[in-house]
């Protein structure tokens, strides 16, 4: 089987076409297949997982088989709905990153509940919207004060935010809370600001065709409430007398985007309140995504130059720096909002490499990530680096831990199976990176 190299997101379509021309001069099909792999990324047609999984140069299956903790989950990969996406980052003499991606059982059409992992997608689209508004309202910034009203059943108002230095709500403050400790209300406010129609249009614009955002989190949001968004006013004056932007209540009346995914009916039973229903839980009306979509988003924020120009985020350098800062900042380092290091240790919401019991991150390691945890699913989407050791890589994974196949019973093996697996996966890949890395400074 061919050793497929998919260091490809950093190529534009024009560059890929140039690769094809070069491939035509070779006497075999290898370069042509490589071109198809690159082109599939650029055009958003898919990941060619079957070919990639079989490549003999793929270290993932070997690494998992050699470790007892990982091997036990790998043996039951289908039951655990296991998917792993690992991207090596190699820099050239000019410091430019080049990517080589490996997959283990990555299946964009196999459903997993994304939980909080999709919050980063919403953060990106909210910042893009504010940046577009600031073109005609130059005084508008992420720190501008918000007031949120209610206009439909189940909606709630926001007049103040005591976690912020100003005592006011703002896009920046919601982003901080969402990225630092995965605050659900913060995500919900961004969902209301962008709106479901624009959220899903934005995802398609960036080539993310396996993701659909169709509800708020942790408030039982579903149709018709999920289609309705709150009125929002944004102010730049300290007295909050004259808003510079007013967004009225809105309703999305179109069709939700459809993504063909398998396995959206999960388990053998579930609880609805105190009632046990003896049938699978239907996830077809819930948020959905894929591991490649999640990792693309992280790469687009951290390595914007590696994204084809038409798909790049419409953010300025300050927006990108803000996202990078709060993706990696440990909660105790934040002053507004302030978090107790006891309740929010350094490894809070850092599943890969550091998950499990409260503790510190490994020495010298920074983790830029967004996790998800719900219904037995654990997801982590991370960029891990140690500048002293010249290590950097992207690692994304999902694992399902629900042995009794009953949902909403709070009997998930998060602590005994899921978190130990993700921590060990990060440790094993990190150790592999240390071994393969050139030791010269960059």
From TrEMBL:
- On the tree of life, the source organism's domain of life is Bacteria
Care to name a GO molecular-function term for this sequence? beta-lactamase activity
Q: Which InterPro entries match?
A: Beta-lactam/transpept-like, Beta-lactam_cat
Q: Which GO terms describe its biological process?
A: beta-lactam antibiotic catabolic process
> Domain named Beta-lactamase class A catalytic: which ranges?
104-390
Q: What is this protein called?
A: Beta-lactamase class A catalytic domain-containing protein
Q: Which organism is it from?
A: Hymenobacter wooponensis
